[in-house]
Amino acid sequence: MTALELTYTSTVDTSTTTPLALALNDLMVRHVGATFPSCALAVLHRGQPVVHSAWGESEGNAASVETLFDIASISKLFTTTVFLRLVSSGVVSLDDPLFSVLPEFAQAGLRAIEGGQDPHTLQRQPVEPDVAGQIVDPRQVSFRHLLTHTSGLPAWRDVFAFAGPVPLPPEAHLPLNPDARWARAWPLICNYPFIGQPGQRVVYSDIGLILLGQAVQVLCGKPLDQVIETQVLHPLGLQRTMFNPVQSGRAVLAQTAPTEMDLRWRLRRVWGEVHDENACALGGVAGHAGLFSTAMDVARFGHAWLEVPEHLAVDAALAAQAKTEQAITEDVRRGLGFVVKSRHNASAGDLFSEDTFGHTGFTGTTLWIDPQRQCVVSCLTNGVYLGRAAHAPHAFRRELHDLIAKSL
Q1: Residues 6 or more apart whose Cβ sits within 8 Å of residue 257
Q2: d(C-alpha 37, C-alpha 23), whole Å
Q3: CB atoms within 10 A of CB 183
Q4: pLDDT tens per residue, the chain (408 residues)?
Q5: How many CA atoms are closer than 13 Å to the CA of 29, on its beta-carbon side?
Q6: Dihedral sign, CA of 176, 276, 77, 85?
Q7: In this structure, what DSSP letter does residue 123 have?
Q8: CA 165 to chain centre
Q9: Is 327 within 8 Å of 334 (Cβ atoms)?
Q10: Which among 79, 112, 123, 206 has most CB atoms closer than 10 A?
């Protein structure tokens, strides 16, 4: 795809004579069609949009600034925000044990430490030698452990294989019966073996955030999607952020960016439904994945965390903890739910400050917030459209953020 063929839309004046517009065009010419088919980018500087543009196309549909992308693990930040609101209001404490809200998590008693599972090959992994033969008391796991990814829980397990039949395509608009799916999966989620001791090291865990999402539901007495809608999306005015956009009737396929050709489970192009198999199998709504959004909505969410305004309803001191290093293992730095920029080879590039915080998503999405520059960068792509084995967004992410930093 040449520069002349590159589909491009923008709502901000990014004249090709500006250095940032020239650099972005050059970057996109090199990556659209190679790293991802479609991209939407929103950049806020001191609260004002300096970039709000889209490039590329998928399945014959040109990307626009209104295209809904599967934001993957950036969804975790919305679950985190609701939970931190609950902490701020005194409903729960960071250091409360998980079983105090989800007693079934500890009902089976002590658990052995085993190996994890590779999310791509589904193969079981060996036990780490330094914890071989150890057991874990699940009553030791706190909400702080879940938020810092230091729970000792596995990174991933194939929940989707046990949660029920393969869902129909989302345009069928048929209910997924999430209650029945959760009933099958929940005992497994609560009883997976640990891969390490709580509090010892950072291991990024989808299982931990699935549990956090379920705890939010119990504490609020409402489904997670309703809680996120009323406590985060509505207060921030995020009208283009949603779960199950096509199945719910809030969008049509052409308004969403398709992702991977799923050859191992759904046996179809994933389009208008969440890419993550576990989130899809659980009805499209889970604490770790499931949200679709636009680049500007994600940027506005990031800006809310940059300022932590009153309507976010998170205590200022708690918010400061969320955005700064609370745990680190081999340069993997974690706040509370948020990732803090690595000191070496960061996906946010070399020029954003060390205080930068945010999250990435496996589908090819990023949200990085630099408090020193007062800059928010939301970049949404559907890189897994080309296949997860070929998905390599790291170099693109680094170059994108460095050129933005130079322009500011």
Answers
A1: 38, 58, 63, 67, 68, 69, 70, 380, 381, 382, 385
A2: 19
A3: 12
A4: 333 356 677 776 555 568 898 899 999 999 999 999 999 999 999 999 999 999 999 999 999 999 999 999 999 999 999 999 999 999 999 999 999 999 999 999 999 999 999 998 999 999 999 999 999 999 999 999 999 999 999 999 999 999 999 999 999 877 668 899 999 999 999 999 999 999 999 999 999 999 999 999 999 999 999 999 999 999 999 999 999 999 999 999 999 999 999 999 999 999 999 999 999 999 999 999 999 999 999 999 999 999 888 889 999 999 999 999 999 999 999 999 999 999 999 999 999 999 999 999 999 999 999 999 999 999 999 999 999 988 899 999 999 999 999 998
A5: 10
A6: positive
A7: -
A8: 25
A9: yes
A10: 79
CA distance between the termini of the chain: 29
Of the candidates 219, 208, 213, 239, the one whose C-alpha atom is nearest the C-alpha of residue 79 is 213
Show Cβ contacts of residue 346 under 8 Å, excluding neighbours closer than 6 positions. Answer: 352, 356, 398
Q: Where is 88: in which H helix or E strand?
A: helix 75-88
CA distance 79 to 200: 24
**Looking at domain 75-228, which of 3.90.1150.10, 3.40.710.10, 2.40.160.20, 3.40.1010.10 is its CATH number?**
3.40.710.10
Q: Do residues 322 and 83 touch, judged by C-beta distance below 8 A?
A: no
Give the pair of three-digit tokens for residue 405.
Answer: 């930093």
Domain positions in the chain: 8-74+239-276+291-407, 75-228
Burial 262-278 (b: 16+ CB within 10 A, else e): beeebeebbbbbbbbbb
pTM of the shown model: 0.96
Q: Is there a common fold for 8-74+239-276+291-407 and 75-228?
A: yes
Candidate CATH numbers 3.40.50.150, 3.40.366.10, 3.40.710.10, 3.90.170.10; the one for domain 8-74+239-276+291-407: 3.40.710.10
